[in-house]
Design a protein that fits this description.
Keywords: Hydrolase. Belongs to the dGTPase family. Type 2 subfamily. This protein is mainly alpha-helical. The chain is built from 18 helices and no strands. The protein has one domain: Hypothetical protein af1432 (Orthogonal Bundle). Helix 1 runs parallel beside helix 4, helix 4 crosses helix 7 and helix 4 crosses helix 10. It is globular. The mean pLDDT is 94.
Length: 375
């Protein structure tokens, strides 16, 4: 596999926090990907909400299927740009490992509950999962991933948390949030692939749910353009065939746009190594026109789908479940699994325990502890 000079080369990795002998048949980034796929946290993603709760339908995206779509898009773009596909895949598969049950509603609840105990950020929690919470190896906590994968997992981080991480790991994965540098190009690519994936699949899931209609997308120029392309070539297309083909075309155009815009940006700055690329402004990007079109689509989805009354009702119920679970575990930590119940940092232990839950386990635990069914 050809790699550009500005790609993350596995032989130049900054290594693992706990040194390990190299694998005989896999690069460090391939090894990271394999560890992620075999982790408990990765399997839990199949029952964690993307937009619609798992019990609302079998075909809606979950955090797992979303992560697979991000990995597919990321690898396709990385191959065209000469970036490291294995690193992109590892970051994509791990980027949501710290997400709570019930999607962003869960993060909001845990951040409120942890306000006086350090707060809660799902990107930071993803790093915490791969660094600490996974229990698979006798010699160390976590998965002991390479620096470059961990750097990509920590997509966002507040300054306060970055300073705490920097104190624990000087010149580590949080340093860029303090000195204004960028992550690897592979990490930048995963951030954009994440956006492309969720914009596209939320159109699909929104229409499938019946909460938005194809006609409502008349106010979204990006989608209308490709729907009309499909109808010009296939005038008979209707329903799901029309929807899927329009989404397919939209995805392809966004991928091509990222490739072209990023190549132009790289040509402007001409980084000769991965570290030099980190010192440049962000290089992986949309063209300004596609950025505006994508932003318009996001605004539409936020207004018509994410804030739909039915979604708001479900979100309110989910928040109630997690608020009451948090209070119950703080009052009776012995109700948690032993490894969490016996920890000294009680509130953080409760946050770790709840954030690792699937939607359905959280619902069962809430019913067990309160005797009430919310959903």
């Amino acid at each position: 596999m050809w790699l550009a000079p500005y790609a993350s080369l596995p032989e130049r990795t900054r290594g693992r926090r706990h040194p390990e002998a190299p694998a005989p048949t896999r690069s460090d980034y391939q090894r990271d990907r394999d560890r992620i796929v075999h982790s408990t946290a990765f399997r839990r993603l199949v029952y964690k909400t993307q937009v619609f709760l798992n019990h609302e339908g079998d075909l809606f995206r979950t955090r797992l299927t979303h992560s697979l779509e991000v990995a597919q898009l990321g690898r396709s773009i990385a191959r065209s740009l000469g970036l490291n596909e294995d690193l992109v895949e590892a970051i994509a598969l791990a980027h949501d490992l710290g997400h709570t049950p019930f999607g962003h509603a869960g993060q909001d609840v845990l951040n409120e509950c942890m306000a006086e105990h350090g707060g809660f950020e799902h990107n930071l929690q993803s790093l915490r999962v791969v660094d600490t919470l996974e229990e698979r190896y006798p010699a160390f906590d976590g998965l002991n991933l390479s620096f470059e994968t961990r750097e990509g997992v920590l997509k966002h981080c507040s300054k306060r948390h970055a300073e705490l991480l920097e104190a624990q790991e000087p010149d580590g994965v949080a340093r860029r949030f303090l000195d204004g540098t960028q992550p690897s190009l592979e990490a930048q690519l995963c951030n954009l692939a994440d956006e492309i994936a969720y914009n596209a699949h939320d159109i699909d899931d929104g229409v499938r749910s019946g909460l938005v209609t194809l006609e409502q997308f008349d106010e979204v120029p990006l989608f209308v353009k490709f729907r009309e392309e499909t109808l010009r070539e296939h005038p008979q297309a209707r329903g799901r065939r029309l929807l899927f083909d329009a989404i397919r075309r939209m995805l392809s155009q966004q991928v091509y746009d990222v490739i072209d815009a990023t190549r132009a940006r790289i040509a402007d700055h001409m980084p000769v190594s991965a570290d030099e690329a980190r010192r440049c402004p962000p290089l992986v990007r949309f063209t300004p026109e596609m950025r505006e079109a994508s932003t318009q689509l996001k605004r539409f989805l936020f207004r018509e789908l994410y804030r739909h009354p039915q979604v708001n009702e479900t979100t309110a119920q989910a928040k109630q479940v997690l608020h009451e679970l948090f209070e119950a575990y703080v009052q009776a930590p012995e109700e948690m699994q032993v490894g969490f119940a016996n920890r000294d940092d009680q509130h953080r232990a409760v946050a770790d325990y709840i954030s690792g839950m699937t939607d359905r386990f959280a619902v069962r635990e809430h019913e067990r502890l309160t005797g009430r069914k919310v959903f």
